[in-house]
Design brief:
CATH class of the largest domain in chain B: Mainly Alpha
CATH architecture of chain A: 3-Layer(aba) Sandwich
Largest interface: A-B, 20 and 19 residues
Number of domains of chain A: 1
Strand content of chain A: 15-25%
CATH topology of chain A: Rossmann fold
CATH topology of the largest domain in chain B: Leucine-rich Repeat Variant
CATH architecture of the largest domain in chain B: Alpha Horseshoe
Number of domains of chain B: 5
Radius of gyration of chain B: 34 Å
Oligomer: heterodimer
Number of strands of chain A: 6
Structural class of chain B: alpha+beta
Family (chain B): Belongs to the COPG family.
Order of helices and strands of chain A: HEHEEEHHEHEH
CATH superfamily of chain A: P-loop containing nucleotide triphosphate hydrolases
Radius of gyration of chain A: 16 Å
Distance between the termini of chain B: 94 Å
Helix content of chain B: 40-55%
CATH superfamily of the largest domain in chain B: Leucine-rich Repeat Variant
Membrane topology (chain B): Peripheral membrane protein
Protein name (chain B): Coatomer subunit gamma
Subunit structure (chain B): Oligomeric complex that consists of at least the alpha, beta, beta', gamma, delta, epsilon and zeta subunits.
Structural class of chain A: alpha/beta
Subcellular location (chain B): Cytoplasm; Golgi apparatus membrane; Cytoplasmic vesicle, COPI-coated vesicle membrane
Chain lengths: 186, 882
């Protein structure tokens, strides 16, 4: 690292870049959330099911995020693990109206946490209990209970209910996430 | 670090900095891709290394490739343009090696629909390389949009990618036809060309649609700006015209091609001229404009145009010599062209078309620089000389001398083979040139490094040498081979010497001495041959010598091999019967036809691969029939198979061809049926036959299922009548089947129940030639004498319908299906009488020899003498001729 880099780092001027992984079951709203977080001129008008992954960028409080928006379809979920190693934060999106598949989401989460590339590391986890506007949606507390988040102790985590279409609840979650990430980088 | 090493390598003087790359170290470096933030310069360099390795043929294992591939996917986060484009290339190269490549589908679709034009075309190409049939559905919409995109690079990329996708998912691509149509109207010439390619590819199996497509472009409803697109249309049109056969002369399609001769682009003009000149059955009037265009090109200042024109003229020189006369003057001026390739082609073209008087001059011209041109062009020269020899037999001495000088020069096998071929053809066609030709060949084998050629020439010497005036002079050349060459050549030399011994009685004592010496050879094969020939020749019995040396075993070798193998597998007390093996299908006939064809086309120099074809075909049927138990159980192997005969018109609902397989006592009729109706499924297809008297239907094997576009066979096994004269007849035939209507797209039947239907076929004709196998006899006279003891039949015929001897010879040969011996099928010009010798085997292995003395008065009169081992066969032949 050059002298200039050191200096700018010390002064906090350096552009902070963070790589995050966005995972969750299919149709939970991952791409919609990322699309909402992007700046206005980069937003796309329609969201189609992701195949494989899509690399997106957005900015929050002077921190530049590179989001790897992964496909949630069953047959592509085993591709997630290729990207665990380098990520500095994970956003896990849950469709809170889909009670039936909450168990599936829990299983995927457990596998993620136990993966050797994630287990021993300090990785902030942000949960979005998405689609809160739907009538039979569960509250964030119930979702947290269903996923067994209380047992998760070695990593900072936060859950908030959200509505990706209107953007409700997203800012709160991302705000927390940015702070955690900045802390871990210091 | 990497930089330092590169620098050092540069100092070493190696121009290629990638020369000493190690796969493992590069893969190690590829881990840099995972770093955040991405260093574009470094990553681009590493990607280049990976691509270099892959292009050098380095193999990556599936795990290695997958690991690199996933590392590459992480580079999508960089916005560096150069790096991104390298990433696309990397994805394309790795797509076939790595697993789970669909991971980048969304990333690529995003780039392909994004705002950055630099990414879009490359993203499409990469996307199509990672997509398989199942995934294609999800990107179909984007592809359709991309095809009609305003950006020509994007549109072109999408079109070319679709063309590649037709290989894996033709059905899906067919749905994009409207978009491709729209793209064909594009202003960009590149897009237009690619769109036309896709359109043609989608429709190429449907002739009507192709015609419509062409008509649309032709009529100007779709304007073609791209010269390449027009060239493509010309190619499509000439293919259509070729398929249409002869009746196109007045066709609007042809007019279109002709109108292209007046196009402003040189490429199009050349393509049109090339197409017209290469069409079959063109008349002088149609050719003239094309040839005059080529003539114009000959004087063009651009070497490429001159080369193209002269090359095309050279190719068609043989088929349209008259049309080319007009160009002679321009070709003359090209002889001294500074470009050697153009000069060579000009000279050879002139040799093909020119007059006899100019031959000497041209030969002198070409010999001045023949050593400077490449082998490929030397072969062109040799072929021109071959054509010339056939045309002007009197010039053989000049040409022969030239060829022998060429033989002495350095050159590859193909080149030498083509010269030897030419010399051999000249020897065979022109008796005057025989002695000089053989002398040149003798000289050539003195110093020949190509074993296969030496063996061929020795064989030829053995055959032709004894018939010359002074056979003894060749013995020295042949025996020299025994002393100097390797085993294969020695063996051939021994066999050639034996031929002399058998054919020239006055040389026999000397030959015996030489053969006795060969018995001491170090090689088994050579020793065996020498001993074999020595023993036979020592008997001094011309009959035995004739039988075992000049006309050796007359059996089809592949079938003999198979039969012997089977005999050894199931040993039986009955000794192996050589008679049960059918004789080889006469190859000499095909050989001549093939070599004539070669002379005309001027492309192939070695005839060896051609020769094996008929035998392979025979073998092919034998294996196929053996898979059918009813046929395999017939006693005796397959004797011969006829050429397929059409029993229907070619454009009807059902196309049926009949192949007649002749067994010793049975006749198997194979009906090859093709269903051309896409809304019908045929089941239980069989042929109802009304055999002529004496025939007995033993078995009929129906074909259970015949789908649209498929061809399948049904068989009928018949027993030949005991009375041989009853074997010739006409059988009425009707195709019977159950029809099930079915869905056009899926081919699945709509209903379970079908209905019976039938279809009239033309009569199946069983003739004499179906039962006779051609056999070539090298020494017919001896065989004829030998057959004096067989039964003989003789009769006189008047062949009123024939007006010339050539016609009579061709007809008699075709009717009997026998092989003309000793070139007696060639009638010398200006003679009024000719004798034709034919030989063959009747089914069951009865030898048949025929001598036909023909005389021409007002009509042709023929005295036919048949000698056969079987009285009944001879009777049959004399009774059916006429």
């Amino acid at each position: 690292m050059g002298l200039f880099d050191k200096l700018s780092n010390f002064l906090g001027l350096k552009k902070k870049e963070v790589k995050v992984l966005v995972v969750g079951l299919n149709n939970s709203g991952k791409s919609t959330i990322i699309n909402h977080l992007k700046s206005d001129d980069e937003k796309s008008t329609e969201i189609v099911p992701t195949i494989g992954l899509s690399v997106e960028k957005f900015k929050n409080q002077k921190v530049y995020f590179t989001a790897l928006d992964m496909s949630g379809q069953g047959r592509y979920r085993d591709l997630w693990e290729h990207y665990y190693k380098e990520c500095e934060g994970i956003i896990f999106v849950i469709d809170s109206s889909d009670r039936l598949r909450l168990a599936v989401a829990k299983e995927e989460l457990d596998m993620l946490i136990q993966h050797p590339d994630v287990a021993g590391r300090f990785v902030p986890l942000l949960f979005f209990a998405n689609k809160m506007d739907l009538r039979d949606a569960l509250s964030s507390v119930k979702v947290a209970a269903a996923l067994g988040l209380e047992k998760l102790q070695d990593k900072p985590w936060h859950i908030c209910s959200s509505n990706a279409v209107t953007g409700e609840g997203l800012q709160e979650g991302v705000h927390w996430f940015t702070q955690q990430v900045c802390e871990s980088m210091r | 670090m990497a930089f330092k090493r590169d620098k050092k390598e540069e100092e070493d003087g190696g121009g290629n900095i990638f020369q000493n790359l190690e796969k493992t170290s590069v893969l190690q470096e590829a881990r840099t891709f995972n770093d955040t933030p991405v260093n574009p310069r470094k990553c681009t360099h590493i990607l280049t290394k990976i691509l270099y390795l892959l292009n050098q043929g380095e193999q990556l294992g599936s795990t290695e490739a997958t690991e690199v591939f996933f590392a590459v996917t992480k580079l999508f986060q960089s916005k560096d343009v150069v790096l991104r484009r390298m990433v696309y290339l990397g994805i394309k190269e790795l797509s076939s090696l790595a697993e789970d490549v669909i991971i980048v589908t969304s990333s690529l679709t995003k780039d392909m629909t994004g705002r950055e034009d630099l990414y879009r075309a490359a993203a499409i190409r990469a996307l199509c390389s990672i997509t398989d049939v199942t995934m294609l559905q999800s990107i179909e919409r984007y592809m359709k949009q991309a095809i009609v995109d305003r950006n020509s690079a994007v549109s072109s990329a999408a079109l070319v990618s679709s063309l590649h996708l037709t290989k894996v998912a033709g059905e899906v691509v067919k749905r994009w036809v409207n978009e491709a149509q729209e793209a064909a109207n594009s202003d960009s010439i590149m897009v237009q060309y690619h769109a036309l390619g896709v359109l043609y590819h989608i429709r190429k199996s449907d002739r009507l649609a192709v015609t419509k497509l062409v008509a649309k472009f032709k009529s100007g409803r779709m304007s073609l700006k791209s010269p390449f697109a027009i060239c493509l249309v010309i190619r499509i049109v000439s293919k259509l015209l070729e398929e249409a056969g002869g009746e196109w002369a007045e066709s609007p399609l042809f007019d279109f091609v002709e109108s292209c001769l007046r196009h402003k682009s040189e490429t199009v003009i050349y393509e049109a001229a090339h197409a017209i000149v290469n069409m079959k059955n063109t008349t002088q009037r149609e050719l003239a404009p094309a040839v005059s265009v080529l003539q114009l090109f000959c004087t063009s200042p651009k070497p490429t145009l001159r080369f193209a024109a002269v090359r095309t003229l050279n190719k068609v020189a043989m088929s349209h010599p008259a049309a080319l006369m007009a160009c002679n003057c321009d070709l003359e001026s090209l002889i001294t062209d500074s470009n050697r390739s153009i000069a060579t082609l000009a000279i050879t073209t002139l040799l093909k078309t020119g007059a006899e008087s100019s031959v000497d001059r041209l030969m002198k011209q070409i010999s001045s620089f023949v050593c400077e041109i490449s082998d490929e062009f030397k072969i062109v020269v040799v072929q021109a000389i071959r054509a010339l020899c056939l045309k002007f037999p009197r010039k053989h001495s000049v040409l022969m001398n030239f060829l022998s000088t060429m033989l002495r020069d350095e050159g590859g096998l193909e080149y030498k083979a083509s010269i030897a071929d030419t010399v051999i053809t000249i020897i065979e066609e022109n008796p005057d040139a025989k002695e000089t030709g053989l002398a040149h060949l003798c000289e050539f084998i003195e110093d020949c490094e190509h074993t296969s050629l030496a063996v061929r020439i020795l064989h030829l010497l053995g055959k032709e040498g004894p018939k010359t005036k002074q056979p003894s002079r060749y013995i020295r050349f042949i025996y020299n081979r025994v002393i100097l060459e390797k085993a294969v050549v020695r063996g051939a030399a021994v066999a050639a010497m034996a031929q002399f011994g058998a054919a020239c009685p006055d040389l026999l004592p000397n030959i015996l001495v030489l053969l006795a010496r060969c018995q001491m050879d170090s090689d088994d094969e050579v020793r065996d041959r020498a001993t074999y020939y020595h023993t036979i020749l020592q008997c001094r019995d011309t009959l035995i010598a004739n039988h075992y040396i000049i006309d050796t075993l007359q059996v089809s070798l592949p079938i003999l091999e198979k039969a012997l193998y089977q005999y050894l597998q199931n040993p039986s007390p009955i000794p192996f019967d050589l008679k049960s093996i059918p004789p080889p299908s006469a190859v000499a006939d095909d050989h001549v036809a093939a070599s004539n064809k070669i002379a005309a086309e001027g492309s192939i120099s070695s005839t060896a691969p051609k020769l094996s074809k008929p035998q392979r075909e025979e073998n092919y049927y034998a294996t196929k029939l053996n898979n059918i138990p009813e046929i395999a159980n017939l006693n005796g192997p397959l004797f011969c198979s006829s050429e397929p005969v059409q029993l229907t018109e070619s454009e009807t609902e059902y196309v049926v061809r009949c192949i007649k397989h002749c067994f010793p006592h049975h006749l198997v009729l194979q009906f090859e049926c093709l269903n051309t109706l896409n809304d019908q499924l045929l089941e239980n297809v069989w042929v109802q036959l009304e055999p002529s008297e004496g025939y007995e239907v033993v078995h009929s094997i129906p074909c259970p299922r015949l789908q649209y576009g498929e061809s399948a066979s049904t068989y009928i096994i018949l027993r030949f009548p005991d009375q041989l004269s009853a074997t010739i007849g006409n059988f009425g035939a009707t195709l019977k089947f159950v029809v099930k209507d079915c869905d056009q797209t899926t081919g699945l039947p709509d209903t379970e129940e079908g209905y019976d239907d039938e279809y009239m076929l033309e009569d199946v004709e069983v003739s004499l030639s179906d039962q006779i196998q051609k056999v070539s006899k090298a020494n017919f006279g001896a065989a004829w004498e030998e057959a004096a003891g067989y039964c003989e039949m003789e009769d006189m015929y008047s062949l009123a319908s024939m007006s010339s001897l050539e016609e009579a010879v061709a007809n008699v040969t075709a009717f009997l299906g026998m092989q003309p011996a000793e070139r007696s099928d060639k009638v010398p010009q200006g003679k009024s009488a000719h004798t034709l010798f034919l030989s063959g085997f009747f089914r069951g292995g009865q030898q048949v020899l025929v001598r036909a003395k023909l005389a021409l008065a007002d009509a042709v009169t023929m005295q036919l003498t048949v000698r056969s081992t079987d009285q009944r066969v001879a009777e049959l032949i004399t009774s059916t001729v006429g």
